[in-house]
């Protein structure tokens, strides 16, 4: 597999030069291969959220290099980073982040609208994605008419809208009951196994992490690697 993401020597220091200076990431090296499903685990304060924000191009590191599909993204302008986020990375959040006043179909269409995809094409593809995640019959329902698991399925469809290189899922089962969380994890596994979707799962749940191909553990701003499962 080719390397989709290459992080080398990533550090992140907040309030540099001030009495409150805090270094959260301490020289992180991490590669993510195309088509891989990995999990990033760690206690609160370990640095995994900061690492996630850097992988997702929501924040810049203090030092280090970040290559995404061979492009040095850290040399990009803020507008260019926004374009990378829009087209290369799909986000799935714990609390879904759906827009309450529009239906599931329109929520999935939104990333394509911002990417200036024409209305007919984006509507057809949004409908296809909702079918893919088992929400075809609910596409005209508002978020408040959906269960937590259904909302997360819509959020996953939205994350896939611009055919991103990477899905970054931040505690996607954290707000769900055990059975519904199991359903969402099964959907991620299907997307990875059948569609070769690259997924980075940030989770506190060690049982879910063990189902992924790689487990990266954050501790005190550094990473340790658990051997890939068979």
TrEMBL record:
It holds the Pfam family ABC_tran. Residues 5-230 form the ABC transporter domain. Keywords: ATP-binding, Hydrolase, Nucleotide-binding, Transport. Coiled coil: none annotated. One of its GO terms (molecular function) is ATP binding. Its EC number is 3.6.3.-. InterPro entries: AAA+_ATPase, ABC_transporter-like_ATP-bd, ABC_transporter-like_CS, MacB-like_ATP-bd, P-loop_NTPase. One of its GO terms (cellular component) is membrane protein complex. Belongs to the ABC transporter superfamily. This is ABC-type antimicrobial peptide transport system, ATPase component.
